[in-house]
Amino acid sequence: MDPRFDQALLQPQEEGEEKQQLELRNERHRLKFPNVKQLKSFEILNSAVKNFTSNTKFLSFVILSILPFFAFIVFYEIQISEATDAILRFLVPTSMSYDIGFDSDENISLFSTTDKNDSKRETFRIVFELVPLYLILLPLLELFSLTIVINISAKVVDAGNMKSTNLKETLYQKNNFKGPFITSLWVQLFSASNLFGLIWAVANHSMITARFDYSFWNYRYESVLPNNVYVNILSILFHTLISLALLYKYLDWSALWNMAIVISVLEGETGLDALEISAYYRKHCKRTGFQLMLIFFVYIVALRLPILLARMCSFVTVRVAVTAIVVVLVCLGSLVKWVTMVLYFYDCKAQAMLKKFDDEDVGQAVKDGDVCTV
């Protein structure tokens, strides 16, 4: 065969590989990343904060996009406060309270079974009211907001296109909600399985303590009370370990789920395909994703503390003001999180491409005999 013909056949393939390598080199430059080394979580977070705060037009666009989400969060936080009070009352085991005084066998001061049953009914009522809001309405509003935020974030990190984009063009651009919606359904399904595991741990602990509380009413407390204490302590330790394990897996999987939604928005992949691509991209960046999710989880939990302290205040104005400030911070944190996920997606994609090129180079070197093998 004519060597020139072989060269003509190989030329398009070589040009394609050079184009991919050039795209990889330009990926970090486009994102203002200095090199192709894997970025740490704080580097990605710092870059996200800079992109978020350095562009006032971008900041105004994303704030407008989350107004419906903000209004719902205000209502949701009020419901969460009631649910927290009810759950805490429900989770405190009655056998752990030793305020017991008696003059005779008939005069024993304990929590009444009527109050306990009322507390259980109130807890389950509030929880079942919040579950549809958490699993249906909240994800839909968040999906609407994050789709716009992800598209705008991609523009900001992509050569600063926001300078030439006006408000009308950005808000009314063609956004693909179908793909992210399908992906979010799978994400909610997997997330619900983790949530049900947590609910099982809480319910199982409650049933164990309730069983020994019943035995307390039927036997002399002198012989049953020590066993009751030991069982409660062991149950708390066991179910705490289960809850921590579920939390660890939730944070690890959250990075995969969130990046799958980013892939659905930016690359058009949907459902399980987006989740598979996300799993492939983050093979070499799992620790970074977990650390990012842990940072945002700690941030959200820390914001709950001012609300808990404000509920101790008797002034309604103070409680409302603190709740409003916390909700604003929660929404801003959500915006930064999705900007961070866009940058995390680009970083994981660059790492996957780099690994692919390295494997191809090693394979080609072995094939050509440039690498000694034993």
Automatic annotation (TrEMBL):
Where are the coiled-coil regions? none
Q: Which residues form the signal peptide?
A: none
- Which positions, given as ranges, span the membrane? 58-78, 126-152, 185-208, 229-250, 289-309, 321-346
Underlying gene = LOC110708446
Could you list this entry's UniProt keywords, alphabetically sorted.
Membrane, Transmembrane, Transmembrane helix
Q: What is the lineage of its organism?
A: Eukaryota, Viridiplantae, Streptophyta, Embryophyta, Tracheophyta
Superkingdom to which the source organism belongs? Eukaryota
Query: Which protein are we looking at?
Result: Uncharacterized protein
